[in-house]
Amino acid sequence: MIRINLLPVRAKKKRNTSIYQIVAMTAVLMVALVGAFTVHTIYRSKVEEREKKIAENQAEIKRLQKIIGEVNELDKQKQRLLNQLAVIDKLEKGKRGPVRVLDELSASIPKRVWITSFREAGGTLSITGSAMDNSDISEFMRAMQKTPYFSEISLKFTQADLRDGVTVFNFEVGCKVNYSA
User: Fold this and answer.
1) Per-position b or e across 156-171, b if 16+ CB within 10 A of its CB
2) Which of 91, 96, 139, 145 falls 20 to 30 Å from 73 in CA-CA distance?
3) Residue 2 has what DSSP assignment?
4) Under 8 Å CB-to-CB from 109, ≥6 apart: which residues?
5) Chain segment 41-57, per-residue pLDDT in tens
6) Domain, as residue range, for 144
């Protein structure tokens, strides 16, 4: 009987299987490394893209903050100018107010009433004068009430006085005066 030794073939098959396994494992490892590198590259590009977007947004925020600062400064200047205009308007009214008040007072004086003194302090007006009758004083006060410049009109006193055989009534009227009306 002939005997055939198959051991070297088995060993050779075992060695070939081992080589195939090593090649397969190396191929799998290479595919895994290429896949990992690809995934890493993709995520890295996304991260770089987002960092670039963040930098752009921060630059935009700085630009907008500068604009907001300018707008706030312009608002402050606007408010300052509005305040100055209000002061100018108040001064204009104060400049024209006394002339108008005296004109209205002049128009309010009846024919039989004479003003002897006119004093104003702190928005309060005190008028002293003479009249032929108490009804003339009353008419004078009613005429003053019709104007927008005088308010809270009150008669402080009235007193009869005999001058050259004629009875004259001296009076004092107090009121608040508004020059800006």
Assistant:
1) eeeeeeeeeeeebbbb
2) 91
3) -
4) 115, 140, 143
5) 999 999 999 999 999 99
6) 109-177
Q: Which residue has the tokens 């005088």?
A: 150
Q: Give me the mean pLDDT over the 65-81 stretch.
A: 95
Q: What is the pLDDT of residues 104-127, one digit of tens each?
A: 888 888 898 999 998 988 889 999
Distances (CA, A) of 20 to 11, 15, 17, 28: 14, 9, 5, 12
Mean predicted confidence (pLDDT) in 88-103: 79
d(CA 88, CA 69): 28
CA–CA separation, 155 vs 113, rounded Å?
14
Question: 154: which 2 tokens?
Answer: 């009150």
Enter the tokens of residue 52.
């670039």
Q: What's the CATH number where 159 sits?
A: 3.30.1360.100
Number of domains into which the chain is organized: 1
The answer to whether residue 115 is domain-embedded is yes
Enumerate residues 6+ apart whose C-beta is below 8 A from 98: 179
Separation of first and last alpha carbons in the chain:
144
Look up tokens 């004093």; give the residue.
Answer: 119
